[in-house]
Amino acid sequence: MTTENIQQDPGLTIAGKTYRSRLLVGSGKYKDLEQTRLATEASGAEIITVAIRRVNIGQDPNAPSLLDVVPPTKYTILPNTAGCYNAKDAVYTLQLARELLNGHKLVKLEVLGDEKTLFPNMPETLKAAETLVKDGFDVMVYCSDDPIQAKMLEEIGCVAVMPLASLIGSGMGILNPWNLSLIIEQSKVPVLVDAGVGTASDAAIAMELGCDGVLMNTAIAGARDPIRMARAMKLAIEAGREAYLAGRIPKKFAASPSSPMQGRAT
To answer: Is the pTM of this model over 0.85?
Structure first.
């Protein structure tokens, strides 16, 4: 088989729209808007998350807007509810985002449990998800790596589930690949790792497990060279996806020679 005959990755489809990139990136924690622009471009990402409660996208007409460097004409803006600790606040925040973004429907829901762990509050997350879906939103949802909770969110009507790999901003990587694999196996909607990625190998592992994509912010923005790290993450996502599609060899407790044994001299 030649490289021309290799089947192309059809892309990541969320809420009926297909994206070439399987890397989603955040827009916070950069030193300025110019660095945000350069890192976003280097990542190749097409979906950019925006914390509505922390970033100006038009709420303050007298301040610089993120949309000046990450324009909606070029990127899909994904408003999120970072900083919300109950369903009511999360729903209100995304309704505000819809007004600011002219009826935009695709959103990322996250309802946090506490300020120390930033772990998802799943009862409030489920409540908010149900309200938002009924209100016509296309909901991508940050959740625990619990297969039962992930299935409940899918049944509510969320368009993607986003289990954490480890705590937000921790850089600890994927701590429980078995739970992620269970979620991937059962899900009929895209599964994207959200939170905990620290470096390119973490992103590649997520893709090799069969995740449909990875969302990250701190791993890029907090790097010594965010623009170079953004490029590294782009390559890691692509390599991990290709490895998943290629199919890895099984692990086994025995050596296997890499050269054929037939016809060897005795």
So the answer is: yes
